[in-house]
């Protein structure tokens, strides 16, 4: 356990636990590949599509927050129960990414072709019948479904209270995704709805729920769990708002996915909700066709109107709330400091 005499122990414990999560994912996918290859070699394509996402350099944020919540709440670093739940979160994230890329028509993920693009190209290269695009999307959707199956399998052995939160997390993710595509279709500026979508689609599922799952597994006190909730919701919002900024202003080489994809998909992010509601220069430029607006001109207009700075101010306020919550929590100073560091890393990342 981390102690005042060894301030590096918290991060070392977290690193060891995340190493166990990595090993669990590797073992699971290798076993699945062997089993399905023996049954029918062609069927391993779905497992390989999952492995391509899992092992392509993701940040492992959700397992990290789950493991941090577990250890900060007093969980035994040598106990195995948190490893499966943390691995389940990464499998769930893989499901979401595979489906997201289809819904967003995204061509890149972590600087590599997305699953639906890669399999559409395979279809064309092999000269198979039917439409390559639909084939590629079908493979990606099925791979996502299989990743969700693996996630639920990994979470199945958790205690009932933990499984209850797991079910809420999955439901919130789906509802948030639906509200996101519905808001894009309606294209009506609504900052409150944008914050609601950010909360369910990303905030809870990325930070708050993983942290709570870890705290519950460790048997954390109600006060600790309440502090985790306040911290997690604040960091989760900041995380999603940074995602909005990276899409609008980021570099594809750094983020590993196409920039300004939210513009092309008419995504009603907090950034665009503020801009379209409050800035006539932006609303006049965009009209009712965000996807058709020149991205360079929109970029310049957003900078000139100060919208980027307003979102940065929201991020700063949310991080401050999060850090105050863990400083007041019944956890060690070392873990409060580590969680504060993790909040800054999530909110101020560049990819």
Automatic annotation (TrEMBL):
<dbReference type="InterPro" id="IPR000092">
    <property type="entry name" value="Polyprenyl_synt"/>
</dbReference>
<dbReference type="GO" id="GO:0008299">
    <property type="term" value="P:isoprenoid biosynthetic process"/>
</dbReference>
<keyword id="KW-0460">Magnesium</keyword>
<dbReference type="GO" id="GO:0046872">
    <property type="term" value="F:metal ion binding"/>
</dbReference>
<dbReference type="Pfam" id="PF00348">
    <property type="entry name" value="polyprenyl_synt"/>
</dbReference>
<comment type="similarity">
    <text>Belongs to the FPP/GGPP synthase family.</text>
</comment>
<keyword id="KW-0479">Metal-binding</keyword>
<keyword id="KW-0808">Transferase</keyword>
<dbReference type="InterPro" id="IPR008949">
    <property type="entry name" value="Isoprenoid_synthase_dom_sf"/>
</dbReference>
<protein>
    <submittedName>
        <fullName>Polyprenyl synthetase family protein</fullName>
    </submittedName>
</protein>
<dbReference type="GO" id="GO:0004659">
    <property type="term" value="F:prenyltransferase activity"/>
</dbReference>
